[in-house]
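Teaching assistant here, posting this on the class forum so everyone can see the example we discussed in section. The complex has two components, and the goal was to see what a joint structure prediction looks like when all of them are supplied at once.
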Amino acid sequence: GIQVEQSPPDLILQEGANSTLRCNFSDSVNNLQWFHQNPWGQLINLFYIPSGTKQNGRLSATTVATERYSLLYISSSQTTDSGVYFCAVSTRAGNNRKLIWGLGTSLAVNP
Amino acid sequence: DTEVTQTPKHLVMGMTNKKSLKCEQHMGHRAMYWYKQKAKKPPELMFVYSYEKLSINESVPSRFSPECPNSSLLNLHLHALQPEDSALYLCASSQGTGPNSPLHFGNGTRLTVT
């Protein structure tokens, strides 16, 4: 089945810094979503982005489907950005309702 | 605030107890999901309901029993659980069942089995 790899596994930033998180996948996808899970467990959908670029405030995401990767950019990081960022995909060959998840990037933003 | 509401937030139960987790959404979504998440791991899919019918059961033990009374409600009935079932249980919904339907999660129920 498809493999989803996220990097880096852990990241520590000083407030105000910028960062890029990466998600590599081993097969063509028809669905790619980025999620943020805060320290209290709440899981928020950040982007649905199987291809192209989207921006939402300080966050933006780009998926290059032909090269099988997606990037999540966080600019001017804030302490509330701390938590785990997950990338999840599904494929045409797989089941559309079953997302395959990466292991996440754990981000800590220090004041 | 999340548009998918889960109750209770926390639950402690013994191995002989019967309890239920509840999930509600009023976004008109037609697919609803139960996920289980252990610490420092991604969520694992348990069940999917599509148009109120069970469409995916990821080989979940029968001590977990899902129920979808209507398009807005999803329950997970728990019976004779084991301590290793302790986890965060997340409900999610999506507008459709196709690939272009983002998932929306509730805040989860933290379950401890003693």
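For the discussion questions: The first strand of chain B starts at residue 4 and ends at 7. The two ends of chain B are 31 Å apart (CA to CA). Think about how each of these relates to the inputs above.
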